[in-house]
Amino acid sequence: MELSELWFVLVSILFIGFFFLEGFDFGVGMSTRLLARDQKERTVMVNTIGPFWDANEVWLIAGAGSIFAAFPNWYATMFSGYYLLMLTILLSLIVRGVSFEFRRKVDDERWTNVWDWMVFIGSLLPPFLFGVLFTSMLKGMPINEDMNMVARFLDVMNIYSIWSGLTITLLCLLHGLTFLSLKTEGEIRGRSAAMAKKVLLAVYGALVVFVGLSWFMTDIFEVRPFLELMIVVLIVLAYGLSYYFISKRREGMAFTMTGLGIVLTVSAIFVGLFPRVMVSSLNKSFDLTVYNASSGAYSLKVMTIVAVTILPFVLGYSIWSYYVFRKRVSDKEHLTY
Amino acid sequence: MDPVMLARIQFALTTIYHFFFVPLTIGLAFMIAIMQTLYAVKKNEIYKKMAKFWGHLFLINFAVGVVTGIIQEFQFGMNWSDYSRFVGDVFGAPLAIEALLAFFMESTFIGLWIFGWDRLPKKVHLASIWLVSIGSMLSGFWILTANSFMQVPVGYEIKNGRAEMVDFLALITNGQLLVEFPHVITGALCTGAFFVAGVSAYNLLKKKHVDFYKKSMNLALIIGLIGSLGAAFSGHAQAQYLVNTQPMKMAAAEGIWEDTPDPAPWSVFAWIDTEKQENKFELNIPYALSYLSYSKFEGSLKGMKTLQAEYEEKYDSIAGEETNYIPPVKTTYWSFRLMVGFGSAMILLSMIGLYLWRKGRLEQSGLFLKILLPAISFPFLGNTFGWVMTEVGRQPWTVFGLMTTADSISPNVSSKSILFSIIMYTVIFTILASVMIYLMVREIKHGPEEHKDEHSTVSIDPFNKAGV
Question: Which residues form the signal peptide (chain B) (predicted)?
Answer without folding.
Answer: none
